[in-house]
Amino acid sequence: MLKLSKKVEEGSIQGFTLKEGVLGFGDRLCVPKNAELRKELLKESHDSTLSTHPRSMKMYCNLKSYYWSLGMKRTLQIMWLDVLLVKG
Fold it and tell me: Smallest Cα–Cα separation from 79: which of 56, 50, 62, 61?
């Protein structure tokens, strides 16, 4: 994400913002490739009282309203499968 931040600062990339050191994509926060952070976001979305159904697609739709990361949909699918296999 550092490379992306530098491109935003240089103005060589569109659609991203950098405000007070926080990288954004449109009106969403960018999430770095940090497995623990992504798992925490997944857990928060899953456990949220606002989450109406904990399936991966519903969670993806909820999360994509606020966050952006490269491959987020695929990451959620893999993490959700891991949860099902552990609990199943």
Answer: 56
Same domain for 67 and 80, yes or no, is: yes
| Torsion 21-37-57-4 (CA) sign | positive
Kindly report the backbone phi and psi dihedral angles of residue 26, in degrees, each rounded to the nearest multiple of 5, phi listed first: 65, -125
User: Comparing 75 with 18, which gets the higher pLDDT?
Assistant: 18
At 6-26, the pLDDT tens digits run 899 999 989 999 999 899 998
Q: Which domain holds residue 65?
A: 32-88
pLDDT at res. 88: 46
Task: Please name every residue paired with 19 in a beta bridge, in sequence order, or none if there are none.
Answer: 22
SS3 of residue 44 by DSSP: helix
pTM: 0.55
In the block, residue with structure tokens 């199943």:
88
Look at the chain and report how many structural domains it folds into: 2
